[in-house]
From TrEMBL:
Pfam families: MarR_2 (PF12802). This is MarR family transcriptional regulator. PROSITE patterns: HTH_MARR_2. The lineage of its organism: Bacteria, Pseudomonadati, Pseudomonadota, Betaproteobacteria, Burkholderiales. SUPFAM superfamilies: Winged helix' DNA-binding domain.
Length: 145
């Protein structure tokens, strides 16, 4: 089924543009909400993935968060300089870098879910429970989950 045609396509009235615009709004608001912790919204994903044990290397984080390895390295550099995580080469394979959260990183990560929930709930305040569930279902379908 075609949803767009050459004649009907608008550069600012299409699903791709709207998703990018929504993402930009969320990123801006997340960055502002986390600024007092000295981290960006993108770095939140790193710390929460580590806290929850779903990733412990830069490669795992890059794949999990859909971030290219160059950007991941720069974000990890900043988090390491802030004392939120540490890097160590694997004893078994020197090519592998293992990441570990510091005590400070664990404390900061513990605050993150509550802050993110406030930001997202504010964006979703006009949605009913059914609309939110439908949006979630449709987005998962869109990205192929």
């Amino acid at each position: 089924m075609e949803h767009y045609t050459r004649a009907s396509f608008s550069p600012t009235q299409n699903v791709g543009f709207m998703l990018i615009r929504a993402r930009k709004q969320i990123v801006t608001e997340m960055d502002a909400a986390f600024s007092h912790l000295g981290v960006t919204g993108a770095q939140v994903g790193i710390l929460l993935a580590m806290q929850r044990g779903v990733a412990s290397t830069p490669i795992e984080l890059s794949k999990r968060l859909s971030v290219d390895t160059g950007l991941m390295t720069r974000m990890l550099d900043k988090l390491e300089r802030q004392g939120l995580l540490e890097r160590a080469r694997s004893a078994d394979d020197r090519r592998v870098v293992n990441l570990a959260m510091t005590q400070k990183g664990r404390q900061v990560a513990a605050e993150m879910p509550a802050i993110a929930a406030v930001v997202l709930d504010a964006k979703l305040k006009k949605f009913t429970k059914a609309e939110f569930e439908e949006l979630d279902r449709l987005l998962q379908k869109f990205i192929g989950v």
